[in-house]
């Protein structure tokens, strides 16, 4: 029931994710961070199994930082997306000795970034290491609803306010039509000024539950 989606507008890319940490029929917390800032101008939004999602996101984050530390320049968004795709592909086909071992990450990725020469971009990377550069994308059951809304209302060159309005329409549709809809969502944006949090959409307080 995870919800991760994003789109590219005029001079920016925006990614949205729910903030629920769920296992089985239980909600453990409603302020889980699923969008990580890779560097000053890149965001990675991940959905999938909790352990894989956290471990793989941190792995990509540290390797992107290591590349910049070693070379003195950051990876472009395209390079970071291709590196991410290569790591997922390698995990799918890992060899130990002469034995073929299946060790995939159950994680889907939206990678958004802004480069000075190419502007904003959004990359779709699924758990089978499929990579596409897209204008809009979504993962999870909510993709059935959010993609239909974006197909109807999205257009190239959207302003930031138009993009936020479209995101709100997607969230409203998810909450009204998905059987088990996440209560809270966070939006993050990346543009020429950098990657940052844009807004929250909450229907429950963002706090971890307390147990006796």
Structure, described:
It comes from Arachis hypogaea (Peanut). It is found in: Cytoplasm; Nucleus. Pfam families: Proteasome. This is Proteasome subunit beta. It is a single chain. This protein has one domain (4-202): Glutamine Phosphoribosylpyrophosphate, subunit 1, domain 1 (4-Layer Sandwich), CATH 3.60.20. 32% of the residues lie in helices and 35% in strands. The protein has helices at 50-71, 77-92, 143-153, 160-177; strands spanning 4-9, 12-18, 21-23, 26-29, 35-39, 42-48, 95-96, 99-100, 107-115, 119-125, 131-134, 136-139, 185-191, 194-201. Strands 12-1-2-13-14 form a five-stranded antiparallel beta sheet, covered by helices on one side. Strands 5-6-9-10-11 form a five-stranded antiparallel beta sheet, with helices on one face. A hairpin with a 2-residue loop joins strand 13 and strand 14. Helix 3 (143-153) packs antiparallel against helix 4.
Question: Any descriptors?
Answer:
Glutamine Phosphoribosylpyrophosphate, subunit 1, domain 1, five-stranded antiparallel beta sheet, 212 residues, nucleus
Summarize the structure.
By secondary structure, the chain is α+β, with helices and mostly antiparallel strands. It contains four helices and 14 strands.
Overall strand count: 14
- For the CA atoms, what is the radius of gyration? 17 Å
Specify the helix fraction band: 25-40%
Please state the overall shape, judged from the principal axes of the Cα atoms. globular
The CATH topology, please? Answer: Glutamine Phosphoribosylpyrophosphate, subunit 1, domain 1
CATH class: Alpha Beta
Tell me the major beta sheet. 5 strands, antiparallel
CATH-level-2 architecture: 4-Layer Sandwich
- Share in β-strands: 35-45%
CATH superfamily: Aminohydrolase, N-terminal nucleophile (Ntn) domain
GO cellular component, one term: nucleus
Subcellular location: Cytoplasm; Nucleus
Family: Belongs to the peptidase T1B family.
InterPro entries: Ntn_hydrolases_N, Proteasome_alpha, Proteasome_beta2, Proteasome_sua/b, Proteasome_suB-type
């Amino acid at each position: 029931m995870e919800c991760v989606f994003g789109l590219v507008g005029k001079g920016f890319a925006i990614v949205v994710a729910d903030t629920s940490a769920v296992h089985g029929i239980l909600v453990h917390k409603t302020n889980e961070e699923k969008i990580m800032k890779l560097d000053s101008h890149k965001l990675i939004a991940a959905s999938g199994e909790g352990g894989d999602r956290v471990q793989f996101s941190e792995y990509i984050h540290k390797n992107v930082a290591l590349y910049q530390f070693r070379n003195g320049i950051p990876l472009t968004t395209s390079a970071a997306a291709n590196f991410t795709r290569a790591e997922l592909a390698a995990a799918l086909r890992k060899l130990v000795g002469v034995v073929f071992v299946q060790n995939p990450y159950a994680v889907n990725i939206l990678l958004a970034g802004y480069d000075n020469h190419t502007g904003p971009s959004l990359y779709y990377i699924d758990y089978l290491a499929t990579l596409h550069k897209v204008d809009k994308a979504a993962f999870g059951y909510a993709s059935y609803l959010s993609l239909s809304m974006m197909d109807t209302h999205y257009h190239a060159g959207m302003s930031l306010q138009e993009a936020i309005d479209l995101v709100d329409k997607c969230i409203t549709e998810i909450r009204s039509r998905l059987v088990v809809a996440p209560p809270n969502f966070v939006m993050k944006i990346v543009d020429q000024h950098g990657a940052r949090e844009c807004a929250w959409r909450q229907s429950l307080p963002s706090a971890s539950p307390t147990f006796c």
